[in-house]
Amino acid sequence: MQLIDSFTKADKKRVLLSFAGVFGMGFFLSFLVMCDLGTDPCTFMNRSISSRIGLSFGNWQLLLNSVMFLIVLLLKRRLIGWGTLFNMILVGYYVDFFTWIWRNNIADHIFTDAPSRWAIFLLALLFFMISAAVYINADTGVAPYDGIPIILSDAVTSHLPQIPKTAIRICWDGLAIIIGILFGGVPIVGIILMALFLGPLITLVGKKLKPLLSGESNRRKA
Q1: In angstroms, rounded to a whole number, what is the distance separating the alpha carbons of residues 114 and 59?
Q2: Over the stretch 45-84, which tens digit does the pLDDT of each residue have?
Q3: Do the beta carbons of residue 17 and residue 134 sit within 8 Å?
Q4: Dist CA 65 CA 176 (whole Å)
Q5: Cβ distance 123 to 24 under 8 Å?
Q6: What is the pTM of this model?
Q7: Total of domains in the chain
Q8: In a domain, 176, yes or no
Q9: Is residue 218 in a domain?
Q10: How confident is the model over 82-96, as pLDDT tens digits?
Q11: What is the DSSP letter of 162?
């Protein structure tokens, strides 16, 4: 009920931006999967596990997200919003759906020949990160995968304030990469580029969206 009530009062622009960001993430992530030059740590881990155990990427991601969602719900419910549900349910299935479309309608060599492969990869990576930045700046709840390191950071820094929260997030992503490797995945350049440029893009997109969302923020403060 609380989530439904909050939705009725939430600014529609934020919800629409969140949904659009999630759609873009799934859409462009499907191209990254086809190019096979690397993704974000969460996708890398989940693709490695799903391939090993024989589940579709969307089904496995929803299953794992559901477990992490319950943890976030129990320990830090304020992190959950409609964006949380959009992310945990839709991204994996968008990837499965669009990957199926590309495999049945685009020649394989487009994703394997060096010039076209790298061009598609770099463009898809850029727009995936922009989509992720839009989703994050919409501020309608965090993905379950992102909620866990926030909970860990708050717990650790309350006892060891000298440990930066960014270090905990890096360790969390590092753990995801290690798990992906253990399940047979091979981390490639995409993970490195994501780590280098996602943060600055989040800040840049946030500045661009601020005028659009400032009115809603002012109403919240009133």
Answers
A1: 31
A2: 999 999 999 999 999 999 999 999 999 999 999 999 999 9
A3: yes
A4: 14
A5: no
A6: 0.84
A7: 1
A8: yes
A9: no
A10: 999 999 999 999 999
A11: T
